[in-house]
Design brief:
elongated, six-stranded mixed β-sheet, five-stranded mixed β-sheet, 13 strands, disordered N terminus, alpha/beta
């Protein structure tokens, strides 16, 4: 845990251990294999040259980094965005809150939340703020503004709400008030964890994640030929199941970015699920590699 001006976020580890909620048919996720490294695995495009290996489901423009990292490994990707971001009910209230209130911390838990916050912060006249972020992906959005006030000053040891809440430092002389600009669909885990420690949390639902309503039938037919679908949110997974169908999804392996998306898969009755212990772009890519290697072994 760190509170400093060092914005590298380099302490966020890229672990090799992967877990799944249910036993995977190939046995890779069993207790004897939990420490196995996947970093040396390189997969060439499988089967037909036109058949994708993995489907990337984040909103348009948010799949580029993962796609590039996978394609240099010889993994054929197909981007099928399942979600899109809309303004939330509190988006218009954010600038006034920043102008009129003083916060010990602004806690930001996704790149989308960071983007919306930056807009509101500029509209408020760029006031002084102290930023805490959940992980490297969110930090990157803020760092790229080159605005000194927006550089993150805290990142939890593990990029999830379960660690964020307990680890956020209290400030001597602070007022104990936290601003939490979030998705309208975000859970209350972070909010509850902070309030249990005595913080006052001002949650503002500044954006919402909506399901993509229409996907071309030809796109869906092609996407069903993939062996793995990569999901970075429960919303994307639910949208995928809605568009592709539960049976088709059950035949694929779900590579989830973290435990939240993996729990959503479990609730939907999906058994072929892999996720990293510590969420992040690097571990997400490793999880996708592992999922593809598992399906190759089955064949």
């Amino acid at each position: 845990t760190r509170v400093s001006g060092d914005m590298s976020c380099s302490h966020v580890a890229s672990p090799q251990r992967l877990q799944s909620f249910r036993s995977y048919q190939s046995g890779w996720c069993g207790p004897n294999n939990k420490n196995r490294s996947v970093s040396t695995f390189r997969l060439k495009a499988h089967g037909s040259a036109s058949a994708p290996d993995v489907i990337l489901t984040r909103e348009k423009g948010k799949n580029d980094i993962v796609r590039d990292l996978l394609e240099v490994r010889g993994i054929q990707c197909m981007e099928v965005p399942m979600v899109e971001t809309e303004k939330g009910p509190d988006a218009e209230l954010l600038p006034r809150a920043l102008q009129n209130e003083r916060f010990d911390w602004v806690c930001i838990t996704s790149p989308e939340a960071a983007t919306v916050f930056i807009e509101g912060w500029k509209e408020a006249g760029k006031p002084d703020v102290r930023i805490a972020v959940v992980g490297k992906g969110t930090a990157k959005v803020l760092e790229e503004t080159c605005e000194e006030a927006l550089q993150p000053q805290f990142v939890p040891s593990v990029a999830n709400a379960e660690h964020f809440g307990p680890e956020l430092p209290t400030l001597a002389g602070g007022n104990g008030v936290i601003l939490y600009p979030s998705s309208a669909k975000a859970s209350t885990i972070l909010q509850d964890g902070l309030e249990a420690r005595g913080f006052k949390v001002i949650r503002m639902n500044t954006y919402n994640t909506a399901t993509v309503k229409h996907v071309e039938d030809s796109t869906l037919r092609h996407a069903r030929s993939a062996r793995v679908v990569a999901v970075a949110s429960p919303s994307a997974l639910k949208a995928w199941v809605h568009h592709v169908g539960h049976d088709a999804t059950r035949a694929m392996t779900i590579a989830a970015i973290g435990s939240t998306s993996a729990r959503a898969a479990e609730k939907l009755g999906l058994e072929r699920v892999l996720f990293p212990e510590e969420p992040g772009i690097e571990t997400f890519v490793e999880t996708i590699e592992m999922a593809l290697q598992n399906t190759s072994k089955e064949e």
